[in-house]
Write a structure and sequence with these properties.
By secondary structure, the chain is of the alpha/beta class. The chain is built from 14 helices and 10 strands.
Length: about 325
């Protein structure tokens, strides 16, 4: 199954097909399942008997007040916890791997294991998208890829501008994973006259003086800053003034931005320092454990003084008695 199967027309049809199957993806069934299992049917009958609660015969959205509110939030990131939003790309990566292996369905346990979370957290996260899976079957991989991609805004093409054509900028421009995830490198900019005009990853490097023109021409809303720290804030200010609202910052500096602008900072040195901290802790723990083991071994073997008689061989018996027993 190709990753291009996440395109909206095909997957909308897929979503219609799945929702048409009441035993698989119908929201009404999922709402009942979310509220109760076997007892849910009895509860629905009880609610149906109350004239003031006509929800059973209403629209699907009115089938469950709790799930209806959740469904209303699932179309907006403002209605989804930030922690959940941060995990959605991880789920999507695991789903892409399953799709590459032509896996049609996946259980919440399997998907959670692939994503490195527990299954209860995964089910709760996906419920914000209105996806509950099917008992005994799991989640439809292709449809779930589309749901997560849609929520992340990846069903459209996002033009990205990279400012800074050094080693990091070159590596980012040559990364082939952007295109398959819904991102397109619109332009690569730099201020070095020796670099401007050269070709990197089929892109002719433009001058950083063209930031405003590039953003306007390609309708860029995401900017990547891969410049030295000293130039990062100025580049950021120009990107924001040109209309960019989202920044991915690789420069080792904290950017000052107004409210309403999203900044994600990637500092490789900080990540390495954190890893060094944990490596050092493991080394210290290992040395401590080794020393304790040596001390226990010394106590077990006994640091006996020279000339001290050995311990009795058998429960306090003398050497003669021990030899007699042995014969």
């Amino acid at each position: 199954m190709s990753r291009r199967s996440t395109s909206a027309p095909r997957n909308e049809a897929r979503g219609t097909e799945v929702k048409a199957n009441a035993a698989v993806q119908a929201d009404a069934v999922q709402a009942d399942a979310a509220q109760a299992s076997a007892a849910g049917a009895n509860s629905a009958q009880a609610n149906g008997a109350q004239p003031a609660s006509p929800r059973a015969s209403g629209s699907r959205a009115s089938g469950s007040r709790a799930n209806g509110a959740r469904g209303g939030q699932s179309r907006s990131h403002h209605g989804i916890p930030e922690a959940t939003v941060a995990r959605l790309p991880i789920y999507l990566r695991a789903l892409y791997a399953l799709a590459d292996r032509d896996t049609a369905t996946v259980s919440s346990e399997e998907l959670a294991a692939a994503a490195g979370v527990n299954s209860a957290k995964l089910r709760k996260d996906l419920s914000h998208l209105g996806s509950y899976g099917t008992r005994g079957v799991g989640y439809d991989v292709e449809y779930l890829v589309y749901q997560v991609s849609r929520e992340l805004g990846l069903t459209q093409d996002w033009p990205v501008v990279i400012v800074g054509a050094g080693n990091l900028g070159r590596a980012l421009a040559n990364y082939g994973g952007f295109a398959s995830r819904g991102f397109r490198i619109a332009a690569l900019l730099d201020c070095d006259p020796a670099v401007v005009g050269t070709t990197i990853a089929r892109h002719q490097v433009r001058s950083a003086a063209d930031i405003e023109d590039v953003v306007a021409t390609h309708a860029v809303s995401i900017g990547v800053i891969a410049t030295p720290a000293a130039a990062a804030q100025d580049v950021c200010d120009r990107l924001l003034a040109a209309g960019v609202t989202s920044i991915l910052n690789f420069a080792p500096v904290v950017l000052n931005v107004p409210s309403g602008v999203d900044v994600r900072k990637v500092d490789l040195s900080i990540e390495l320092q954190i890893l060094a901290f944990h490596a050092q802790r493991r080394a210290i723990v290992g040395m401590t454990q080794e020393r304790e083991w040596q001390e226990r071994r010394a106590r077990r073997d006994g640091d006996r003084e020279p000339g001290a008689s050995p311990a009795p061989a058998l429960g306090g018996e003398s050497d003669v008695e021990a030899q007699a027993v042995g014969t």
